[in-house]
Amino acid sequence: MPQLRIALAQVNATVGDLTGNAELIVEWTRRGARRGARVVLFPEMALTGYPVEDLALRASFVEASVAAVHDVAERLGVEGLGGVAVVVGYLDRRTDLAPRTGLPAGAPLDAAAVLYGGRVVITSAKHHLPNYGVFDEYRYFVPGNTLPVFRLPAAGSGGAAVDVAVAICEDLWQDGGPVAVCRRAGAGLLVVPNASPYERGKDDVRLELCVRRAREAGAALAYCNLIGGQDELVFDGDSILVSAAGELLARGPQFEEVLIVADLELPAAGGVPAQTAVDAGDGSVITIERVTLPAVAQPTVVMPAMDDGAAGPASTGVREEGAEPAGGPFWPRLSDPAQVYAALVTGVRDYARKNGFRSVILALSGGIDSALTATIAADAIGPQNVHVVLMPSRYSSGHSITDAEDLVKRQGLHARTVPIQPIVDAFTAELDGFPVLGLPAENLQSRVRGVINMALSNAGGHLVLTTGNKSELATGYSTLYGDSAGGFGPIKDVPKTLVWELSRWRNDHAERNGATPPIPPSSIAKPPSAELAPGQLDTDSLPPYEVLDALLDDYVEKDMGSAELIAAGHDPALVERVIRLVDTAEYKRRQYPPGPKISQKNFGRDRRLPITNRWREALDHGPA
Q1: Which of 187, 262, 401, 425 could pair with 250 in a Cys bridge, judged by C-beta atoms 3.0 to 4.6 Å apart?
Q2: What is the pLDDT of residues 537-582, one digit of tens each?
Q3: What is the pLDDT of residues 271-292, one digit of tens each?
Q4: CA 235, chain centre distance (Å)
Q5: Is 126 designated active site?
Q6: Which of the following is catalytic: 126, 354, 470, 597?
Q7: Which residue of the set 137, 169, 216, 354 is catalytic?
Q8: Is there a contact between 508 and 501 (Cβ–Cβ < 8 Å)?
Q9: Is 492 one of the annotated active-site residues of the chain?
Q10: Catalytic-residue membership of 44
């Protein structure tokens, strides 16, 4: 059978950086050529970054993307890489559709192009447009209706060629469409550029999906996924290559830039009509468009450089024991807490880096939330770039101050102490009759801390990190313009119980690697408290977190109504109380900064409820 060497370039693109992303594509194609790859596959919209959101509706950006993909093709030819078939995602447009109501302005396309011989030889667009969860693609794109198939001479086959088809991301996740048509096209390989965001448990789902779709298509399947952070989304890579029978042939690492190279044995291409319209099995018709790639001189193959198959600059800096990559084709899987932690580190690192921040600042209280946030930041951008502010009040316990100081010493962070009581007293004195106890006084302390953080941010050019967790955000247990003031929330999507789990995991990870645990054990062990009032504990206002988080998971992530929650075994009185807390805190969450999404439904792109909303869940407690 003909043989084909393919490289999956699992890279970290930046939205809007056409020049930088083009350089990325050329460089990683060069790496693939050094390894002898005939096909190099890049992620979805690698040239523009993903998601581009309303940039897709801006004609100037679409035009720049179209021009850039042709420029990249030409440059590859000039640099002697024209004999490599490069499949790259970019933003295109339909030019044959008249403007009309309901059609995205300019008819943009989530597109893929095959670059070969110094030119763009064929293009296509995503057929299935996702419109759920974090996706809103009917707003931005029109669907594609073609399946491109390019015929490429293969190695070791006496001149035989192979047929390679192209589909894009969501086209795998939906029945019918390009996958079904691929079987009719007789392609031996289906390559799929992806920008599939991370969420817990998704890696197992992806593998099962790729295996199923490869069998349906009757073709080997190459799934190349983006890595890196983009606002609240984090992409984890985890690229996959399976045979037509569903056998796993290669699998890339998680949260690392890498080139995955593998040799495939594929069926020889047969004589098939140039263009065929096929029932796609989803109520649409897809046209199979074919192109035969001409013979082009191949790049010189050399021994790979050390970095061709190893972790690139996007490494999270935290690797589990025994997980050092050996160049593939199979990279070890990370445990669940390691995956989540790597996602948070990736999100913080890329939000800071891609937005031009070299340092971060946060309030360090000695509690577990700020301790974990500081640790994530140190792993993301280096402890030398993390600034923490200890802001004790009259209610701060002695152990909170010593725990914060202990963490600073363990990690080598920059620290300063700013006692807030004189500032709070000054506010109280000027606000005649202002209460010295109760919610107004508690919120004033938090807001003074927020002002200090923002002032130091302005003075030093630091990105302010907030330290609130998902359980607090859900129930409104935060102060607007106080602890919610900042530019990015690293643990915004992390429930309190998971905060403790991740903290214990990070300390255990350090000990396994002979390093000092970064988080003081007492910060993990002590009861949580905002310390805004005498003897205050979180449990004064909230139920125990293990009870609360289970209920929040069912209400927020699973969208259960009150009757379902009660039927699931939650206490009826607690259901009523928590629903009220969650529903009335929507206005606070709208004003909270973005943070990395790690759950199936985060507060942000996933969950969009009206602030002004009189709907309340009816609570039927059943017969007395």
Answers
A1: 262
A2: 777 778 899 999 999 999 999 999 999 999 999 999 999 999 999 9
A3: 766 668 888 888 899 999 999 9
A4: 3
A5: yes
A6: 126
A7: 169
A8: no
A9: no
A10: yes
